[in-house]
Amino acid sequence: MVVLGGGFAGLYAAAYLGRSDLPERGVDLLLVSARNYFTFTPLLAEVAAGALGREHVTVAYRTLARHYRFRFLQAEVEGFEPGERLIATSRGPILYDHAILALGAEPQYFGNDALRAASLPFTTVEHALKIRDCLVQRAERAATVPDPKARAGLLSFVVAGGGPAGVEVASEIRHLLRDVLPRYYEGLDVATVTLIDSGDRLLAGFDQRLAERGLGLLRARGTQVQLNTRVLDAGDGWIEVEGSSGRETMAGVLIWTAGTRPAGVLGGLDVPRVKGGYIAVDQTLRVEQTPGLYAIGDISGVPDPRTGRPYPRVAPIAISQGIRAAANVENELNGRAPEPYAAFHAGKIVSLGDGQALVDILGLPITGRAAWSIYRAAYLLKLVGTKNKIRVASTLALNRLFGRDLTCEC
Ligand SMILES: Cc1cc2nc3c(=O)[nH]c(=O)nc-3n(C[C@H](O)[C@H](O)[C@H](O)COP(=O)(O)OP(=O)(O)OC[C@H]3O[C@@H](n4cnc5c(N)ncnc54)[C@H](O)[C@@H]3O)c2cc1C
User: Which of 373-378's residues contact partners 24+ apart within 8 Å by CB, and which partners?
Assistant: First the structure.
């Protein structure tokens, strides 16, 4: 039994199977992932802004493997032969009876290599740390530049993509540049953060009124938001965009959260697909026409039977699909029929940084400090690893007293 990919979907699938009676019955349970640690993505924006570090949002699989009774192999998945039930990896081939594919998504640049080369992606802890380094490095340089125009160019940040990751990172960067760093650096009053989205609203999966409230809060706090605007091209220090008033070239650093596609290695997997190349699965999360293979989380296109549209690519959906796929493998091994996946997605949360958040619980919109308290409590509860929960709570408290980490690899 092999789980490929140790994100939210894969980890929760492996943990479910490890806690079942399958290991006692001799089932060999293996989790394969490219890195040797799990990353808690919802707090990456706070890593990008120096409030938290790598150690707060990552957990080594080996420390979870003993508790959840799975074996772990750090390896890159390189190819598939589903007919042979074989997976090619950088550490050799693996044969399986049942496999759960949970390799997640990766940034999508719509074929524009210049955009890829010129922008900072924001999906991993390494990306978040690179953004933090870039911010601090630019603040250091700006502190020695007397010309306000040159300083403004150095301190201009453009975030492409108005989904939760874009909104959160733009909010945290603005807070860092405009509220936190000016305590230690001079001349940051010219810093700007611009959030760009090609749609006519932010946070497409959220309640419209809540998203509008979020837009108002972002603007009131100084984030410039440009809707109906597309990034066309970018290079070293410049970004070309097209909006309702035509084309414009902006100076600045581009942070890219504007699109994702299924993990690249899946291109070589010959299975049915839905729009965007995501893997087509039936209601029980099994890959269509491919016995023994399940696909879950961000790589799959599971349609929500209520709306007909795919479920949103968010952590609670990935977790619940991981648990359902694992339970269905268990059913199959026990001679029972797999059951259909039904999402229970109680809420959506997005942080606007510095004490503000947007929360949608069962259709009830909540903003302001109450939403922020829910955001903090929810993510502290959901963080993987007790040590990390304690670390995050204590570091956030210590930051209030002593400031955040402003060192940079530069
Ligand atoms: C910056 C950011 C912030 C986010 N914030 C939120 C939030 O606040 N709330 C929320 O609900 N959702 C949030 N999300 C979305 C959420 O993280 C995803 O929906 C969720 O992680 C999907 O889980 P997954 O297991 O399908 O994929 P992933 O978590 O992406 O995991 C995929 C795993 O597969 C591994 N992998 C990929 N390719 C290979 C390969 N070839 N070989 C071996 N291993 C491989 C990866 O290393 C990774 O461990 C955020 C995402 C990002 C990027």
Answer: 374/349, 375/349, 375/351, 378/347, 378/349
